[in-house]
Each structure stands twice: as C-alpha cells, then as structure tokens.
C-alpha cells in the first residue's frame, strides 16, 4: 500500500536556536522539542522530568465532591459497595485500582462486577443493576462506562441503588441521573485535562478520597502500574497528566511489577531484569551540560509499546473469550503462585483469541475481495452472524491494514447485530456513526474507535447510510495512509549522545509519538538480505556524507530488495531505536517506509 510522506512544519527558528543554546543540545533535538510545544528551559525540565506534584487537584473535576461525600458515607455506615467496570483493559485495571484501594481502607462489604460481553454487552447493564439490588449493594462505583446509561440509572434509582459514574467517553446531551458523574468531557466540567483514561478517572477518585481522609499521596504510587497499562492499551494521548502518570507507572512496572503483571510478562519474549538500575540524563537540564559522549548506558526497559502488544492483549483476552473477572482476579492478586496459575489460564485464552482473530480476518478479507461494491466503497462494513464477538474490534484494525478506510465489523449477539468500529487518521468515526444513530439501538466510543448495536432488519439501511456519511466527509488524501515525518536529517547527526537524549523523550504514544526521521540518498553496504516473512535486514550508509553505517530493519518491505541490492540510492523514513544481540546493544534504524527514485530522477 503506497504511503504519503508528510513532513511536519518547522518550528520557529529563533525558538529552536535559543533552546539549543540554553540546553546545550543540537538543533535537531531542539527542533523536536519545539514541535512538541517545549520552547523554554522550564518547559524542557517539566517535559524530561515530569513530577507527580504537577497533577491537578482532583476536586477540580465536576461532581468529585459529591462522589467523595457519598463514598465516605458508605464507608462510615459500612454499606455494601460494588465496583463495576467494563471488560477491557481500561475497565479491569480501573476496577482493580478502586477495589484494592477501598479494600486497603479496611472496607469489607465490597465486591466487583464485570459484565459479560455476550449476555450483557458493553457498560452498565440491567442485569448488573439487578445484581446490585438483589445482593443489597447500596452504592455502585461504575468505571470506564456509564456516561450514556440513562435508562439503567433510572432503574437503579427505582431500586434505591446509588451510582457514581467515572467515565471518559463522550457524553450525549443528557447525563444519567446518578449521585455523581465524573467525566472531564462533560461540557460543564472545567477540569484542566480532558484525556484521562477510565482508570485515570478512577485514580483521580482515589486521589480525592486520599486527600479527604488525610492519606499521604505517596501511598497511591503503587497503583500507577495499573494506570499506565490503561493509558497504553486505551490509546489515549500521552500528554499532560497522562504523560506524568505514564512516566511514573513505567518506572514502577519496570522496577517492581505487581504479581499479576509479572505472571503475564513471563509469557512475553522480552529479556527484562526487574529492579535493574536505570540511568537517566539528569544533566540535560543542568546548565546545558549534556554529558560525555562515551558515558552512555542503554538499559532495556518495558515501553508503552510493550504494554500495548504484550500486556494489553493478554488482559483483554479474558473478557474476549471468557470473563473479564479473571483479569481483575489476576491484577488484585498478591500471591505470586496464584498469579502464575491465573496468568497461565489467561495466556491460554490469548492463544485462542489469536486463532479466532486470524480465522475471522481471513473470512472478512475474502468477503471484501468477492464484493465489487464493497471494493469500490469509501468505508468497510462486513457482517457474519457467527463471528466471535470478542475479536471483531481486532479484526477491524487488521482490515484497515489492507483496506485503509473507516471500518466496522459486525456479528450477531442476543438478537442484535453488534459490532466494533475503527477509523483512519483525521476521520471521526464516532461522529459518522452518530449521524446514523436513528438506525441504532446503542453506540458509544471515541474519534477512532466505537461500538454499536442495531436490529437485524436495519442492517442494510445502516450500511448504505454509513457509506453515504463517510463518502461525504472523507477525502482521497485521507484514504491513503500517511507517514508523518518530524525532520529530515543526515546519518552523521545520529550518535550515542544524540540517542541518549532522544530516549528521554519517552514515554512515546499519541501526542508524543516516537520521532520519525527522513534521510535521502542512502545505500545498503551490499550485504542486505531478506529475513523472516519478507523483512529486509540492511546496513545503511550515506555515501555523499561521511558517516558510519547503521544496521537497519524494514519489516514487510522485502519487495524493495531487487532494487536495493544493486547498490542504488533510495530514501528512508525511520525510527531510531536500540537493538540488543548477544548482550551487545547498538543503535538501529527501524525503517517505516522506503521510496526509490522515479524513472529519470537522479
């Protein structure tokens, strides 16, 4: 699939030059900082050394005072409290966080509830409300869900079961009539940061409770591993408060992961050393002293990407295949042996999930390939009544890798057609689905991911209307995948000192992506080869500029080998990363895309 290379606009040259001088770093690194909104010494200090003291006062969130007052009342009166959350990573980490905090306060009249994906669906369900009533729970704390549960909360109020909603999804015009609705995205909420994960909202709740009960903030640090996994897995921006929470959460998960995470990590292929000392570039903001080029310590740590691809899918697998309750049991477990048993079970479920994912993706691709109307469409909507509900969101993402356009994958569940939607850069799929809401029973989500359900007899009409909405709002450029490039650089600008500082831009994720660089007129040293399934292993040099060659990997780009092996020049865009082989660490280029000159170009 041909990709568009889009070079970011350059920062203000005066700001770049001033920052470069003030920090004692090169212009490339200063340019990257200015692109990220960092243009002063103090802003650089906050960026490279986030502080938990920079977190906002939780009581700035609308209804936080009401939520805390109701929970304190429940604690004092020993009321039964039910902690309720969605079955995905964000929901199960949020439930684990709030449940554990209340448990450690000594509250025994406590349980948690994860709805069944198949019999109840997403969010607060009538079955869940009935469970709370039948089991005499007087208060339910709903996490990562509930912002649209108007009818369910009305039913709960009839039962005299109080709800506190902690959500981060976009609300409708009307909010549920709950005791408190915590959601920074509600229009009347002045909370300064709007992009918390569901677990992040849960953290703000326990932060507020800790303040009210004079509990030291330091006692909350142990929950940040849960928060960072939710931030990574829910693909929320790693900016503002999320960057602070992710920064310290990664430190914790690398130094002292809870038994549940440790159990899951045993099934990963990362060679990690818990408790290993991590050397930071403390001198970066120390009067411009950037350290000696030879004083570089490269330590392999878990990154946001590792949480997304190693931890997240396994935690999700429980809710996709069986019950998300298993994930909460794993995350609240304090016993290593028990955690390992649950971790093995969850890893087995993840293996089943991968098989279902692969089979369903193949079926969906065949359906598209054999449907001329669908091939010509601006959107992808595919349906099969027997597809497994637990993998359709993953399948939607897989389809976008082949057919780059807004995508919905649908199956049949409990008498309804239900599905997951995924989008492409700059297209708001939530808004597109909202325009079709007259045909839907339920929908919710974000700009790039959503869920929906509708009656079977409305399916054809929905597909037609959704295609009309997408066609009206999408451009041809948007239908071509884009590689956003931070800067053009030469290979001689990359070195140990440069990379040492570049690593400190982490944690990387939406809003602070790992920088992508472009270098033109490079060649392979003649020993390039195809490895694995069509991957290129190269050694990249820059013959026009004196520079040392770099090892490089280009996944799924073996088709360029016949050209590259001739020693001809080409352009690359790439990340700069660290590679470890036989206990030796080196800088490696991870090539995202390759461009060869058009016929007639020099």
From TrEMBL:
<dbReference type="InterPro" id="IPR001667">
    <property type="entry name" value="DDH_dom"/>
</dbReference>
<dbReference type="Pfam" id="PF02272">
    <property type="entry name" value="DHHA1"/>
</dbReference>
<feature type="domain" description="DDH">
    <location>
        <begin position="80"/>
        <end position="230"/>
    </location>
</feature>
<dbReference type="Pfam" id="PF01368">
    <property type="entry name" value="DHH"/>
</dbReference>
<dbReference type="InterPro" id="IPR041122">
    <property type="entry name" value="RecJ_OB"/>
</dbReference>
<dbReference type="Pfam" id="PF17768">
    <property type="entry name" value="RecJ_OB"/>
</dbReference>
<dbReference type="InterPro" id="IPR038763">
    <property type="entry name" value="DHH_sf"/>
</dbReference>
<protein>
    <recommendedName>
        <fullName>Single-stranded-DNA-specific exonuclease RecJ</fullName>
    </recommendedName>
</protein>
<feature type="domain" description="RecJ OB">
    <location>
        <begin position="485"/>
        <end position="593"/>
    </location>
</feature>
<dbReference type="InterPro" id="IPR003156">
    <property type="entry name" value="DHHA1_dom"/>
</dbReference>
<comment type="similarity">
    <text>Belongs to the RecJ family.</text>
</comment>
<keyword id="KW-0378">Hydrolase</keyword>
<dbReference type="GO" id="GO:0003676">
    <property type="term" value="F:nucleic acid binding"/>
</dbReference>
<dbReference type="GO" id="GO:0004527">
    <property type="term" value="F:exonuclease activity"/>
</dbReference>
<feature type="domain" description="DHHA1">
    <location>
        <begin position="381"/>
        <end position="471"/>
    </location>
</feature>
<keyword id="KW-0269">Exonuclease</keyword>
<dbReference type="InterPro" id="IPR051673">
    <property type="entry name" value="SSDNA_exonuclease_RecJ"/>
</dbReference>
<keyword id="KW-0540">Nuclease</keyword>
């Amino acid at each position: 699939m041909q990709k568009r290379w889009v070079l970011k606009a350059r920062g203000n040259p005066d700001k770049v030059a001033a920052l470069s001088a003030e920090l004692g770093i090169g212009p490339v690194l200063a340019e990257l900082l200015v692109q990220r909104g960092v243009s002063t010494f103090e802003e650089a200090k906050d960026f490279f050394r986030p502080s938990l003291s920079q977190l906002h006062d939780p009581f700035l969130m609308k209804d936080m005072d009401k939520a805390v007052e109701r929970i304190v009342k429940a604690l004092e009166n020993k009321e039964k409290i039910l902690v309720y959350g969605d079955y995905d990573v964000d929901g199960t980490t949020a439930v684990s966080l709030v449940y554990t905090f209340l448990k450690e306060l000594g509250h025994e009249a406590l349980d948690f509830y994860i709805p069944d994906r198949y019999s109840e669906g997403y969010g607060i369900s009538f079955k869940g409300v009935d469970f709370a009533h039948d089991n005499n729970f007087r208060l339910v704390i709903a996490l990562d869900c509930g912002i649209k549960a108007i009818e369910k909360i009305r039913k709960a109020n009839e039962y005299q079961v109080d709800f506190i909603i902690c959500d981060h999804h976009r609300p409708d015009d009307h909010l549920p009539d709950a005791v408190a609705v915590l959601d920074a995205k509600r229009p009347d909420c002045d909370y300064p940061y709007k992009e918390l994960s569901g677990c992040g909202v849960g953290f703000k709740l326990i932060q507020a409770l800790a303040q009210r009960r004079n509990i030291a903030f330091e006692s909350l640090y142990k929950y940040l591993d849960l928060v960072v996994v939710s931030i990574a897995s829910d693909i929320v921006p790693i900016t503002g408060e999320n960057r602070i929470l992710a920064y310290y959460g990664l430190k914790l998960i690398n130094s002292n992961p809870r038994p549940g995470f440790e159990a899951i990590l045993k099934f990963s292929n990362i060679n990690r050393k818990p408790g290993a000392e991590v050397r930071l570039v403390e001198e970066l903001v120390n009067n411009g002293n950037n350290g000696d080029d030879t004083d570089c310590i490269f330590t392999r740590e878990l990154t946001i990407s590792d949480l997304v691809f190693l931890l997240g899918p396994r935690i999700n697998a429980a809710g996709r295949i069986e019950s998300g309750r298993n994930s909460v049991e794993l995350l609240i477990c304090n016993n290593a042996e028990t955690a390992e048993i649950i971790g093995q079970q969850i890893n087995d479920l993840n293996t089943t999930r991968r098989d279902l994912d692969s089979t369903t993706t193949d079926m969906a691709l065949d359906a598209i390939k054999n449907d001329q109307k669908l091939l010509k469409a601006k959107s992808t909507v595919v349906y099969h009544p027997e597809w497994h509900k637990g993998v359709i969101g993953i399948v939607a993402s897989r389809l976008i890798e082949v057919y780059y356009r807004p995508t919905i994958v649908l199956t049949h569940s409990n008498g309804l057609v239900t599905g997951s939607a995924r989008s492409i850069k700059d297209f708001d799929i939530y808004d597109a689905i909202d325009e079709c809401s007259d045909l839907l029973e339920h929908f919710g989500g974000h700009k790039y991911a959503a869920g929906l359900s509708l009656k079977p007899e409305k399916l054809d009409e929905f597909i037609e209307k959704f295609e009309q909405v997408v066609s009206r709002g999408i451009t041809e450029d948007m239908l071509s995948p884009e590689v956003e490039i931070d800067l053009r650089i030469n290979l001689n600008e990359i070195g140990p000192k440069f990379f040492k500082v570049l690593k400190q831009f982490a944690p990387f994720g939406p809003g602070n992506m790992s920088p992508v660089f472009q270098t033109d007129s490079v060649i392979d040293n003649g020993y390039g080869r195809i490895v694995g399934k069509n991957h290129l292993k190269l050694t990249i040099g820059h013959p026009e500029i004196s520079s040392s060659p770099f090892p490089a990997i280009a996944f799924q780009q073996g088709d360029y080998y016949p050209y590259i092996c001739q020693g001809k020049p080409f352009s690359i865009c790439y990340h700069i990363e660290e590679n470890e082989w036989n206990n030796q660490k080196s800088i490696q280029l991870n090539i995202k895309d390759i461009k060869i000159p058009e016929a007639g170009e020099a």
